[in-house]
Amino acid sequence: MSALNIKKGASSHSAYDLRDPNAEVIEVHTLAVVVDNEAGVLARVIGLFSGRGYNIESLTVAEVDHKGHRSRITIVTSGTPQVIEQIKAQLARMVPVHEVHDLTVEGPAVQRELALFKVCGKGDQRVEALRLADIFRASVVDSTLESFVFEITGTADKIDAFADLMRPLGLKEIARTGVAALSRGC
User: Fold this and answer.
1) CATH H superfamily, domain 27-102
2) Where is the chain membrane-spanning (predicted)?
3) If you count DSSP H runs as helices and E runs as strands, how many of each does the chain have, helices first?
4) What's the pTM value of the predicted model, to 2 decimals?
5) Where are the domains of the chain?
6) Which of 44, 62, 121, 159 allows an S-S link to 125, with CB 3.0 to 4.6 Å?
C-alpha cells in the first residue's frame, strides 16, 4: 500500500488537535426583530441577552414604520445551535416583539455596515491612505492638511480589512454603525 493510500485511510483526528470532539460548534447568526417603538423595549431585549450571558456582536436599531410605531432591531449574536434557538424562542415570547427572523437560516441575506475612519498622516502615508481608500471604494467625507475622514460601506470583513490597512498609516479613530441586514428576494 502506498503512503498516499495510507493517508487517505488514516483517521482524521490528529494527536495535536486539542478540540473536544463532543463540543458543539459556535455559530454566528443575524436576527431581525420587529418590536414596538416605545420606551424600554430595547432595554428589555438587551436585558434578555445580558441576563442569560448571551453575547451581542453587533446591534442596530431604527424605526421602520412611523405609522405603526415599530422598530427593527438587527442583532448579530453567537452561540451553539441550542443557544440560538433559545434566544429566538425567548425573544418571540416578549410582549413588544412582533416578529423574529433568523436571517442566517432563512436563506440568502444582504448584510452591510457603515464605518467612519479618521486617519492622520503626512506625505507618503497620506498618499497611501488615499490610494487604499480608492481601492476599497471609501469616500473622503472630511479633509484637513493632516487628516482624512473616510466613509466606507460593506461587510464586516471588508471594514475590518480596511482598518487593518489603515492602522500603520495613522488610523486614530473608528465609528461603526453595526450590521444592517435584509433577506434577499420576496
Assistant:
1) ACT domain (3.30.70.260)
2) none
3) 5, 9
4) 0.79
5) 27-102, 109-183
6) 121
